Amino acid sequence: MERWRPTIRFLERVAKAEGITVAAVQLHAHPKGSSACYDGEAEFDENVITLCGGQDRETVLHELAHLQTQTWHKRSWAQALVRLHARWLSPRKCARADRALARDYPKARRVYREKYGKRLRVWQRREDIF
Ligand SMILES: [Zn+2]
Ligand SMILES: [Zn+2]
Question: How far is the CA of 54 from the centre of ligand 1 (A)?
Answer without folding.
Answer: 10
